[in-house]
């Protein structure tokens, strides 16, 4: 894609042509030239504002998803540090795969590169603008969290029940919908869930003769957990995802 023309390039021919015309036609031609130059400058100098508005419009439809992903990929470590590494990777991915291609296609490629920090700030603001239930409102107890997840599945249309703590073989919730069985392991953690949870729910899927398996958490998941889940067909979900979860074989 060709680079946008500089202001000097845009003004060169209007000034040259207007100056020549002014020599022959006098003040009327000079007035027209001034109007043309003013219009070009106004349009070009307003490009930054149009760029900002366009970024906001592109971000807006994804605001809810960005807020959810921020919650999923953010946690507090044992030293009370807020860890944003996963969210920052997610934010960069969204900009690179969703925003940049659209902005470049619309002729804003140069501004997308030069004003990257501004784009990131707009995405950050969108991720924080969506109101969500505070983590402190979640059940603190692990068993209560399992029942909380089962209730969310019930409201979404599943027939769900929390299993007994003993003998569940890695399944905290069993849910069924139109003959499809889903086993769920629920993790109320203060840090990303590791691949041990994925291993356990894979075993539970076999034990309970289930069609699908999922690990649900209020926190994110480690890269190792994501890799193993991808290889074994396990769903990794935030509890906010349960309200829209539908059967899929």
TrEMBL record:
Provide the transmembrane region boundaries. Answer: 30-46
Q: Which Gene3D superfamilies match?
A: 3.40.1350.10
InterPro entries cross-referenced by the UniProt entry = Restrct_endonuc-II-like, Restrct_endonuc_IV_Mrr, tRNA_endonuc-like_dom_sf, Type_IV_Methyl-Rstrct_Enzyme
Keywords of the record: Membrane, Transmembrane, Transmembrane helix
Under the heading SUPFAM superfamilies, the entry gives:
Restriction endonuclease-like
* One Pfam family here: Mrr_cat
Q: Does the keyword Membrane apply?
A: yes
Record domain Restriction endonuclease type IV Mrr: where: 143-243
* Identification of the protein by name: Restriction endonuclease type IV Mrr domain-containing protein
Organism equals Methylobacterium isbiliense
